[in-house]
Every structure is written in C-alpha cells, then in structure tokens.
Amino acid sequence: MSSEAGSSSSPRGARKNKEDERPRFFDTKAKSMCWSKAEPVPGRHPERWRKDAAGNIVCKRFCNCHGCLCFEYDHIIPFSKGGESVAENCQILQTRVNRLKSDKQEIDTSQLKGYSCDVKFTDRELDIIEMAVYGDVIRPGNQCRCRTVAEMLGQYKSKDRMTACKLPSNEEASQL
C-alpha cells in the first residue's frame, strides 16, 4: 500500500494556506527595534531595563519566562487577526499581561495595568537583581563590578581600577 506525498490525511502533507506563509514569530531585527521603542526606565541601563506597554519594569534577560520582571514580544494586532510579525506591530508586555491579553485587539493601557503583577521593586532590589543577572550594575554615567569571594574575605586585592560595587552593602542591610 503506497501513500502519496502531500496526502491531506497526513499533518506533514496538509496543504499550506495563506496564514502558514506568514512568519508567526518576530525576527531578531524586529525584536531589537521593539525593545528600543519601549520606554526606558529612568536611572537604569536602557539595554537591560525597559517599561512594557502597561508601565511594568521588565529585564531584557528575562524573556519568555513567568516572573514579574519577565516579558514577551506581543503582536499589537494579534497574529490570529491578521497582525504581521514586524516591528511596527510589536510591543513588549510582561508575560502575565500578554497571556491575559491573549488575542484581544482593542485593549487600553488601564486594562493592561489591571493584568499586571502587583510586585513593585525598589531601586536597591533592582540593583541586586541586576548584579545577580549581569554580574554588575550599570546606571547611566555610573557602573561598578562585582567583588570576588576572595576579595570579600580580604584574601585578594583586585588590580581592576573600576570601583567594586557596594551592593548589597552591609551598611544598608543593617538598617533594614
């Protein structure tokens, strides 16, 4: 018994329709442009931190995860409703917001905010997260490097001229 290539009973042989020809996901260039057009977070490095369309702070390293600083690239006009996977139709949204937005097209900022994770991070907490994720904290005009464990124990003095970070500092921790 032989089967014809391209048989419609096989998922692989199913006919392609027009929707299958459109790219479903944003390419690297579209993602880069999408990130760039999102609102920067004041006092934070713009390549690391942005605000999504609902005003939530998100971290670039946390793409496609489920935490409060995580985000996804969203089709403003949903793909299922004919939206293209191009930079002009792209926005970053906190993952939770994007999942609840789903394929809704006409949705305003206040509705998006209603879906947002309620956790708000302090500058100190964002510094600690950035230190853990990137190994340093970079703020416009100010950056530092992490101290090694040996430096913290006083067993080694770095020759690196960049000042070591004071985050998280023992002074700040003792005041809490």
From TrEMBL:
Organism annotation: Buddleja alternifolia
Protein name: HNH domain-containing protein
Biased composition annotated in UniProt, kind: Low complexity: 1-10
InterPro entries: HNH_nuc
UniProt region (Disordered), positions on chain: 1-26
Record field: compositional bias (Basic and acidic residues): 16-26
